[in-house]
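Problem: given the chain below (236 residues), write out its structure.
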Amino acid sequence: MSLNFRSMFVLVAAALFLGGCATPIQQRIDLADNYFLSSKAKEGRVGVVMVELPKPDTAFPGANCLLCLGVANGMHSSLSKEVKTFSTAELKPLPHDLVVLLKKRGLDAVLIDEPLKIDALPDLNASEAVNKSRKNFTSLKAKYNIDRLVVIHFTALGVWRSYSAYVPTDPPKAVVVGSASLVDLTTHSLEWYQPVTISRTADGDWDEPPKFPGLTNAYYQVLESGMDVIKKPFVR
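Solution.
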């Protein structure tokens, strides 16, 4: 399966707020207004981890036949080449930033510096459960001596352009897709769940090869917006 087909499947998942067909769609869960004043928040230790970041790529949702996709790829070969050079370094300080914010709110927080290989974790077998983690994080609970876990999971980064078969229907957009959650590691219930799906078109003309400065700027702007959405509940 090509990278673009994988990215198209990610787009479908994003449209469902990252919910799968076989499992209930996980809706946003806000932190309780008094969460940081509660005894539960003060108890135990919170780990913060980020899942391995995806590589930036292009996708063309709606170009849903092989020939359509071939045409779309051909029309955007220069753009795809440039998007693959986009950096993800701007996202890497985010787990550390969250640890700092949690400590400022009085929580005992610790950074898990190693990127999480989430596909290597067992499923929780909670397909009918609502507001539950889809993965079993018990191994991290024991390894890092933590009671709750903030999981940052970006699932797609790059530039997407919508198509209707062979015809583009919108200008390309820089995108960031993912989620962040706070998991109680005893029950695997979600105390907080924030889906992240942000897109932005270029300011002015987007078709400026070979560097596509408008879309490049839009990409780094959506990264910043995505991080702001994740940090917002923890900022005083």
